[in-house]
Specification:
Layout lengths: L12 E7 L3 H12 L4 E4 L14 E5 H9 L3 H4 L4 E2 L2 E6 L10 E4 L9 E5 H15 L2 E3 L3 E6 L4 E5 L5 E8 L6 H5 L4 E17 L6 E7 L2 E7 L5 E9 H9 L2 H12 L6 E2 L5 E10 L3 E2 L2 E3 L5 E2 L7 H21 L7 H30 L3 H16 L1 H12 L21
Parallel strand pairs: 1-2, 1-11, 2-8, 5-13, 11-19
Antiparallel strand pairs: 3-7, 4-7, 5-6, 9-10, 10-11, 12-15, 12-16, 12-17, 13-14, 14-15, 17-20, 18-19
The structure holds flavin-adenine dinucleotide.
Length: 419
C-alpha cells in the first residue's frame, strides 16, 4: 500500500471514501474534492490492473467533457481527443425492410462536436495524475471488507490500517464489494454477445464521423481518433462469431474488418492489439443504501451501443457531488439517509431510461422479427425526413431527462462547452 500526502490514521474520518480508481471513481473523487468534501480514493494504480488489456476508447459527450474541464483534466487530454462531428448509422442487414442510412450532424444542433473520443488508458492516467496532485489521500490498495453502521463506514484494506468515512462511494466495477456490503441486490441481463475493442488505420479520412454498421449478428462501430486516418473499433457479435475473430492474425482480421466495412474507410492496415469484453447488462436494485452510493459499472452496465456507459458514470459522479455539497452546506451527515435519497432522486430516471433504451435498441438490432424490422425502417425514414424529430433524438442522446449536475453545466449559459 502507498499513500500520498498523508497516511490516513485508523481513526481518520473522511467525509467520503471512494472505492475504485477506474474512470468513474477518479472523476467522483475529484468532483467531491472540488465541492469541498474530504475525500480518500482507494484502488489499484492504473498500471496495477495487469489482468486486463485496456484497448477501449470512450466517446465522451459534451457534458462529460465539461466535467473534465471543470476538474481541470481536459487540457491534459486535448492532444489525444478527437472531436465527434457526426454519427452515421448504417443498416447493413439483408432485411426486406433495410432502413436507410441516417447521419446525425452536431452542426444541426449548432454544436461543433457531440463530444470527444479519448483512449481509456490516457483518460485514466490523466485523472489519476490529477487525483494524486490534489486529493489529500490516494491509497493504492484494495478494499477487502466494509462494516457499515449508524455512525459511519469502516473499510478494511488488503494492505494497511483500516479507514473510516461517513459515506462510501462505490465505484469498484462489476464485482463491487461496496454493493454487496450495503446489501444491494443486482439483476443481470444476458446477451450471449461479446465485443472486440481495438484501433486501426485506414486509407480514406474519417472526417471526424463515427460509423455504426448494423448486421443481423451484431454491430461494427468506428470512432475517429485525432489522426484523420485512424479510428477505434468496437465489434459486437455473438460469442460464437467473436471467438474465432479473436484468434485471427492481424492481417486476416484486417481483411475481415475491411469486408465488414464494405470499403467505407478504404483499405485497412496497422491493426492495434485486440481485447475482448463481455457484453452484459447489470442493474443494482437501488443506487444508494446503508451509507453507500453506487456509481459507474458498480451500479449499471450497458451493452456498448450508443456510447452511454461511462457518460452515465460521469453523471453519477457529478450528481453525487451536488448531493454531498448540499449536505455539507447545511452541516448534515454526508452519508445520511437524506443524501442517499437525494442521490437516488437525482439519478433514478436517467439510469432507468438509458438502461431500458440501450437494452431495447440492442435487442431490436438483433431481431429477425418482421414487425420489429419494419418499425426500425419506418423510424429511420422518419428521422431522415423530419429534421425536428432528428434534433429531438440527438438532444435526448446528449443530455439526461433531468437537469444536468452543476459541474457538468457549461460555464456560460447557452454555450455548448465550457471554455
Ligand atoms: C467495448 C466497449 C466500449 C465502450 N465504449 C464506451 C464509449 O465509447 N463511451 C462510454 O461512455 N462508455 C463506453 N463503454 C463503457 C465504459 O468503458 C465503462 O462504463 C467504464 O469503463 C466503466 O468505468 P468504471 O470506473 O465504472 O468501472 P471500472 O473501469 O471497472 O473500474 C473499477 C475500478 O475499481 C477497482 N476495484 C475493484 N474492486 C476493488 C476493491 N475491492 N477495492 C478497490 N478497488 C477496486 C478496479 O481495479 C478498477 O480500477 C464501453 C464499454 C465497452 C465494453
Amino acid at each position: 500500500m502507498s499513500s500520498d500526502n498523508e497516511t490516513p490514521s485508523p481513526e481518520a474520518t473522511h467525509d467520503v471514501a471512494v472505492v475504485g480508481t477506474g474512470p468513474s471513481g477518479l472523476v467522483a473523487a475529484l468532483a467531491l474534492h472540488e465541492i469541498g468534501a474530504s475525500v480518500v480514493a482507494i484502488g489499484p494504480a492504473p498500471s496495477g490492473d495487469a489482468a486486463r488489456l485496456e484497448t477501449r476508447t470512450a466517446a465522451l459527450l459534451a457534458s462529460s467533457v465539461d466535467l473534465l474541464k471543470a476538474l481541470k483534466v481536459f487540457d491534459r487530454l486535448k492532444s489525444e481527443a478527437a472531436p465527434l462531428k457526426a454519427i452515421r448509422i448504417i443498416d447493413a442487414s439483408r432485411s426486406l425492410f433495410r432502413a436507410p442510412d441516417i447521419e446525425f450532424k452536431a452542426s444541426e444542433l449548432g454544436l461543433e462536436a457531440f463530444g470527444y473520443n479519448i483512449p481509456n488508458t490516457t483518460l485514466i492516467e490523466a485523472l489519476y495524475t490529477r487525483a494524486r496532485e490534489v486529493l489529500p489521500a490516494v491509497v493504492t490498495t484494495n478494499v477487502e471488507a466494509i462494516a457499515l453502521d449508524a455512525r459511519g463506514a469502516v473499510l478494511t484494506l488488503s494492505d494497511g490500517a483500516p479507514l473510516s468515512a461517513r459515506l462510501v462511494a462505490g465505484a469498484d466495477g462489476r464485482r463491487a464489494i461496496c454493493r454487496t456490503s450495503a446489501g444491494i441486490a443486482m439483476t443481470d441481463r444476458q446477451y450471449d454477445q461479446a465485443a472486440i475493442a481495438s484501433s486501426f488505420r485506414h486509407k480514406l479520412p474519417h472526417r471526424f464521423i463515427s460509423n455504426e454498421l448494423h448486421k443481423e449478428q451484431g454491430s461494427v462501430t468506428t470512432v475517429p481518433l485525432p489522426d484523420p486516418h485512424a479510428s477505434s473499433l468496437i465489434w459486437v457479435g455473438s460469442r460464437s462469431e467473436i471467438a474465432p475473430l479473436m484468434q485471427l492474425d492481424a492481417a486476416r482480421f484486417e481483411e475481415e474488418l475491411g469486408e465488414r466495412l464494405g470499403g467505407l474507410l478504404g483499405p485497412i492496415s496497422g491493426m492495434s492489439a485486440r481485447a475482448e469484453f463481455p457484453v452484459s447488462g447489470l442493474s443494482a436494485g437501488t443506487l444508494a443504501a446503508n451509507r453507500t452510493a453506487l456509481l459507474g459499472e458498480a451500479a449499471h452496465i450497458l451493452p456498448p451501443i450508443g456510447a452511454q456507459g461511462l457518460n452515465l458514470g460521469f453523471r453519477d459522479a457529478a450528481a453525487l457531488a451536488d448531493c454531498v455539497a448540499a449536505a455539507l452546506r447545511l452541516g448534515r451527515d454526508p452519508g445520511g439517509e437524506e443524501v442517499l435519497a437525494s442521490y437516488r432522486r437525482a439519478r433514478d430516471i436517467d439510469v432507468l431510461t438509458r438502461t431500458v433504451g440501450v437494452d431495447l435498441l440492442s435487442r431490436s438490432l438483433l431481431s429477425s422479427l418482421f414487425p420489429v424490422q419494419a418499425a426500425r425502417g419506418l423510424l429511420s425514414h422518419g428521422l431522415n425526413a423530419l429534421p425536428p424529430l432528428r434534433r429531438m433524438v440527438m438532444r435526448l442522446g446528449l443530455t439526461p431527462p433531468t437537469a444536468l449536475p452543476t459541474l457538468m453545466r457549461p460555464a456560460e449559459p447557452g454555450a455548448p462547452f465550457r471554455a
